[in-house]
Amino acid sequence: MCGIVAYIGPKEAYPILIKGLQRLEYRGYDSAGVALANGQLMVYKKKGKVQELIDFAEELPKSSTVGIGHTRWATHGVPNDVNAHPHTSGNSQLTIVHNGIIENYALLKEALEKEGHVFTSDTDTEVLIHFIEEIQEKDQLPLEEAVRIALTRVVGAYAIVVLDKRNPNKLVAARKASPLVVGIGEGEYFLASDATPMIEYTNKVIYINDNEIVSIDRYNGIQVKTVNNEVQTPTIHEIDMKIENLEKGGYDYFMLKEIYEQPKTISDCMRGRLNKEDGWIHLGGLEEYSNRIVNAQRFIIAACGTSWHAGLIGEYLFEELARIPVEVEYASELRYRNPIITDKDVIIAISQSGETADTLAALELSRERGALNYGIVNSVGSSIARMTDAGSYIHAGPEIGVASTKAFTGQVTLLTMMALSIGHKRGTISESQYRQYITELANIPAKVEEVLKTNDHIKYIAAEIQDKPNALYLGRGYNFPVALEGALKLKEISYIHAEGYPAAEMKHGPIALIDEEMPVIVIATNKSAYEKVLSNIQEVKARKGYVIAIVTKGDSEISQVADATIEIPETMEPFTPLLSVIPLQLLSYHIAIMRECNVDQPRNLAKSVTVE
Ligand code: M6R
Asked: How far is the CA of 37 from the centre of ligand 1 (A)?
């Protein structure tokens, strides 16, 4: 949800800002803009992708060693040039980039209009910069003090960076519920929504906490304060991020690259945590709170989107292998009802970005009620990773494609290891079962590799259904969440309406939709419900639906009934999602490409949803 970047140092700021914005474009691509200051203020902004901004600013003056930049996911006001950030104060001295929402902007705007302020955009951000200007001008305050006072009266979420034309040696930034990272280079500083814009220049970062304001002075370095004016001593972290992870590496799209990375990312998730030879699983975060987790009365999994689908698989895993009752909640729903959560519960938050506002809010609620908060997160140093009591990273590396792929299999791998480890500790799986599971889990990366080899066949099937307006995905047991995930992947990148259903539920409604125009993708690998899924397929065929079945290698029965089949290697049932989701990811990818959609940046979406 919007990406912000800023630079101050000896180098030309513009190229650094542009490259940073391109890295952050996954967070929003409704518009892009920069502000530069060298005695005069240069603000360039354009509706659309960063490339539109580059073309627009090509011949314009850009020389400056300080600047701020923004890539927008629109909240207040339609995407256009005027609503694009940066926004400028009424006296044209201050300029701001903002990620988040100022909830009381209407009240502030009304008060400012009475003072004579005139607004040109529909945004809450323009109101904020006018408000800062008003406070600064009234008492002739230093910028950081004006920002601080303004923020004490602002309700909402924000990561902001403010630049004052009159003092191009300083940047002032602040955060509340939207991420903000400071990069410390050699005599230069960076600010951004995540560390990706700065990794060529430094691996030293400071994660700004909620309600903190950071002033960066070109000559005097960094000062961090709270909005209550308490000076803070920031902790410098060293990050390990590689540039190749941020590039397409020969693939046309990040999504395809990330799909193909999965044998490696699943291995990376297990590395050092699962030992096939000696038969053990060790998850640091889990061991730390082992007693409380193993004896939990209940797990509540809170997540959104794809991470919620991984959570549903987690429910099946924990209940079957560890015999702990599980509830899986949409984080956005959990926070707005009055759930019964006690100190005997463990809340597992699953999030690729670690910044999803609803998931963060669910964690805050559960913390208030005394539950242990456990995070399953990809993005290192993210808000969820830092606010949970314990947790495990999935180590999938940066996921840039808006459609989540490798993060999903990482999350499921992590949940699988957790369930096996807890089940073993609780004695709900025997030693020999535990060892069998571990041996098979270690084989999964090679099996994913095998599934990826069916890509050409999947592309052929994609061509058959690319023009259909709807699709139905069916699965049972562990593969029901996979059906949901397959449907989400298709709708978000190809704009085809798709629904996921438990296969047996079809006859309670969706069967009415089936005709020759309806492709039905059935995940039919479950040994435990094979005959039942076969019957569901027969029911679809009897109504002339076009069936694409994901089957276990060597399957003969379903293959005869379905119109098309995609084989995946045999595995133990709890691990099938890790294989069966791969063809669905590829199918969506090819359909979207055939429909000429931008699979990495689907319309209206952003990778990191930091607003409610
Ligand atoms: O970063 P998170 O895992 O918390 O994000 C949750 C959802 O926004 C995310 O999974 C979304 O549904 C993806 N676009 C799905 O591909």
From this structure: 36
